[in-house]
């Protein structure tokens, strides 16, 4: 397993070792010892699965209380996945990192607590799996606009084809107005 830094040092890109042959393949998607040795200390309490269609954009989501660390991956299709540093005390505050995750590249992304998260679906459909370090708490969930000009995330959205977003995501607040972490 190879664990690399992204544009945000705490957000890690994980590239598992794939063992494959004519029958298919195998890889470890979670190994507490290997992750701990790479500096990722996580105890997961919840697994989630979402399916989305091409052009759907989910995010940018986070919880102001009970912040969640997330280990995310795609098992069918492809997405452009984004993490945003929401920790005011961090030198990376307000910066973002984006990577393509797909069923073909088997990459995973680790986002520690303190980061907002979103993704844009690149394929016909995408099945997105993620483990969290704390439980979903809808009363603490917050959303920042996906197209916030301060963050200036370079989403791979085709010109003239706005992404499909939920009502919640359409009502997201500006980054400058968002509740952030200390």
| Beta-strand residue fraction | 35-45%
**Helix count, per DSSP?**
2
Q: Would you report the number of β strands?
A: 13
Radius of gyration: 16 Å
Physical arrangement of strands within the biggest beta sheet: 1-2-10-7-12-5
Structural class: mainly beta
Q: What does the main sheet amount to?
A: 6 strands, antiparallel
Low-confidence stretches: none
Domain tally = 1
Order of helices and strands: EEEEHEEEEEEEEEH
Annotated CATH homologous superfamily: Jelly Rolls
Helix proportion range: under 10%
Query: Which of globular, elongated, flat, extended, rod-shaped describes the shape?
Result: globular
Assign the CATH class. Answer: Mainly Beta
Average residue-wise pLDDT:
96
CATH topology: Jelly Rolls
In CATH, the architecture is: Sandwich
End-to-end separation in angstroms reads 33 Å
List the helices and strands and how they pair.
Layout: E1 2-5, E2 12-15, E3 19-21, E4 24-26, H1 32-37, E5 46-53, E6 57-63, E7 70-76, E8 78-85, E9 96-102, E10 108-111, E11 115-121, E12 125-132, E13 141-143, H2 167-170
What does this structure look like?
With 182 residues, the chain is mostly beta strands. The chain has a single domain, classed as Jelly Rolls, CATH 2.60.120. It has helices at residues 32-37, 167-170, and strands at 2-5, 12-15, 19-21, 24-26, 46-53, 57-63, 70-76, 78-85, 96-102, 108-111, 115-121, 125-132, 141-143. The model has no long low-confidence stretch (mean pLDDT 96).
């Amino acid at each position: 397993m190879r664990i690399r830094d992204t544009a945000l040092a705490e957000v890690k890109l994980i590239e598992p070792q794939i063992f494959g042959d004519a029958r298919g393949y195998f890889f470890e998607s979670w190994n507490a010892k290997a992750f701990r040795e790479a500096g990722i200390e996580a105890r997961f309490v919840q697994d989630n699965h979402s399916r989305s269609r091409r052009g759907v954009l989910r995010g940018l989501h986070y919880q102001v209380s009970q912040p969640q660390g997330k280990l995310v991956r795609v098992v069918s299709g492809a997405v452009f996945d984004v993490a945003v540093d929401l920790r005011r005390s961090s030198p990376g505050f307000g910066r973002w990192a984006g990577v393509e995750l797909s069923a073909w590249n088997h990459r995973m992304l680790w986002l520690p607590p303190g980061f907002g998260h979103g993704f844009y679906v690149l394929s016909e459909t995408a099945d997105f799996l993620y483990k969290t370090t704390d439980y979903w708490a809808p009363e603490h969930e917050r959303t920042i606009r996906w197209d916030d000009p301060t963050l200036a995330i370079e989403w791979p959205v085709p010109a003239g084809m706005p992404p499909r977003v939920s009502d919640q995501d359409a009502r997201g607040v500006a980054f400058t107005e968002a509740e952030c972490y200390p």
